[in-house]
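Box 3.1 A note on notation
Throughout this textbook, protein chains are presented in two layers. The first layer is the amino acid sequence; the second is a token string describing backbone geometry. Keep the layers aligned when reading.
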Amino acid sequence: MKQLPNLLSAARLALAPYLFFLLWRRDYALALAVCVVAGVTDGLDGLLARKLGANSRLGAYLDPIADKVLLSGAFLTLALDGAIELWLAAVVLGRDALILLAAGAFALAKSARDFPPSFWGKASTAAQIVFIVALISHLAGLADLWLVTLLKWLVAALTVWSGLDYARRALSQKP
């Protein structure tokens, strides 16, 4: 029972290639269902980890990796297919790449810095999730374009702002 949260995170990670395949084939109704399953497992794994006292080092890595793979892959697939503008995918993927590069550079320089999730990082991730779900819903004929457009600009603003916030926090830490 204590491994159930990790199994749910692993299942979410395993769903990623299937989601990308569905997006590429433009099977948006089924892709939306996969997003819902991924969302439910994301909420459930954290809840079960707390309720069962099953927090683990593996889970601490697996959960955010599954989230990043799903989100980054969805942005990339939708951009390559022309469903979203390339600049938006570049902003989202670029921020994550810069954070990883900075963390790697600090580690190599033996001046490791702590990169815990910030309020702005979490807000950016939440906006990205809502945007992807709204976009897929729109592409499936279930949501209005005005909502997707509003969310697109919110994602862009929060992603840039959170990237600047992470940079400020990393540079202000003592080595």
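The helical segments are 4-24, 28-51, 57-80, 86-108, 119-139, 145-172. The chain has one domain: 4-172.
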